[in-house]
């Protein structure tokens, strides 16, 4: 299958890297954020993309208090699985939340568009404080 249908390992790796590179850009655009990279661009020369979520630590309306960072991360993950029947790895790194997207042979541009919509909805719910209505998982 991998060779006959997909064209072999090199074609698969090329497709996965390309689909997630554009998908990461599309998700970042939907969230009005950015893809994590360095000036050499080497962090995006793979089959993964890390996109910053539009959430911030602070005390203003819509911000998340620092002591609630782990709760928000857990809530995002749990709600994504229970409501949207999917999983995207969410991490809190350097004061921001990031989602790690993976390029896979079975994914298309429309899948990343959907991911951006799901993440945007979940982030809006965090900004409204919905995460406060659940008990922490740990």
Extended strand count: 3
Shape: elongated
Rg (C-alpha, Å) = 16 Å
What can be said about the biggest beta sheet?
A: 3 strands, antiparallel
Tally of individual helices: 3
Mean pLDDT: 94
The sequence of SSEs as H and E is: HEHEEH
Helix % is 40-55%
The strand line-up of the biggest sheet is 1-3-2
Q: What percentage of the residues does DSSP assign to strands (E)?
A: 5-15%
Question: What low-confidence regions span 5 or more consecutive residues with pLDDT below 50?
Answer: none
Distance between the termini: 42 Å
Instruction: Assign the structural class, choosing from mainly alpha, mainly beta, alpha/beta, alpha+beta, or little secondary structure.
Output: alpha+beta
Quickly describe the structure.
The protein is an alpha+beta fold and 138 residues long. It is built from 3 helices and 3 strands; from the N terminus they run H-E-H-E-E-H.
Structural summary, described in words:
The protein has 138 residues and is an alpha+beta fold. The protein contains 3 helices and 3 strands, in the order αβαββα. A 3-stranded antiparallel sheet has the order 1-3-2. A hairpin with a 2-residue loop joins strand 2 and strand 3. Helix 1 (9-31) runs parallel beside helix 3 and helix 2 crosses helix 3. The longest helix has 23 residues, at 9-31.
